[in-house]
Amino acid sequence: MSKSRNTTPPAPLFGRSRRRWVRRLPYGVAILFIAVLLPVTGMVLSQDYGLHPDLAVALAVLQTLPLLMAVRRPLRAWAIVFTADVGCAVALLTVPAQDGRPWPWTPMSIIDMLLLTLAVGLRERRRTLLAVWLLLLSASVVLRSVSPERDNGTWGALVVLSGVLLVVGGALRERGDAQRALAEQETISEAERARRTLLEERTRIARELHDVVAHHMSVITVQADSAPYRLDGLPPEAREEFASIAATARESLTEMRRLLGVLRSEDASGEGGGSERAPQPGVERIPQLVEATVRAGLPVELSMPDPLPTGLPQTVDLSAYRITQEALANVVRHAPGARTRVSVTVDADGSGLMVLVVNATAPDADAPPLETSGTGHGLVGMRERVRLVGGTLDTGPLPGGGFRVAARLPFTTNSAEELFTA
Fold this sequence. Notes:
Heat Shock Protein 90, 13 helices, disordered C terminus
């Protein structure tokens, strides 16, 4: 079974540039030098060096046309031109030496060779560049030794300038490769940072959800343990069933505490451990949250039903508070001093809770925000909390300026398992 080869031509020099004129620059330079060097080379070789006109034209074509190939395949173009230049030097041995004429490399050969060494330096690796330079040096020394009387020292200048251009081209290529690698690494790091942020928010929600579920499991355990004492005349089978339910609930609580130990970060075991075990806030704490925000210098208007809704599912209660907290924190960070309105309402049919946080633009448009880029943790946390209860979230800028966060949290929640298996 034959292996398929990639026949796609390599990218042209500067082909990755964002500027259109930079991408076309190598083609323009190649066409310009071909238009100048092709007729000049044929004329100089035939009239000044004395070669046969047909041979001069053939050598001129081989020495100049590959410049266009060098835009995509500079090493191959260099090999063709180098071979043609060596053939030209050998052909010039068949005609009488001309006083003052450079040999073994003609002026046109020096120009196209310098152009090609720069192109090779921009594309090839260090070992290849060293091999190219050593091959040029070896050919120059060998040809000079064949006819030392023709040498006027120009070959040394070509060798030195070619080495300089190879070093410069190689340095530019390595710098470009390093910049591209850095850009790719930044892209990967950004994706990893976003994934880590999502996992951190899910872990935080899982730790808070532990308190909610643990409360329900504790209630089940107490009810199952006390059932034989509260209900008279229970048959032995029912007593055993209640005992089994209580044992299973206690075992589940133990497993949940083990899970929480895995999810809890190291810094939560010290001074922060008490905050992890504190009662989780709910809708009734939103007025205190707004009051603290007002004291921080943010004008906030609060609209809530009176009396406050009671008997909310604990996940909805906690999510409403956290979403309001994150939204207000984002206003403080990105639009300090902006007028903000917080609204918490119960749906007309009593099926869910609506949390709305809307802020206008900052009063001082020239004042820099406390954070210019942000980490995205707030919006990520809001989305995950809404998913936890099977609700919807609508966020985005307002047409006249400002920002809007609208979350609907249904009272009939989906299984929290969906959040952590997604």
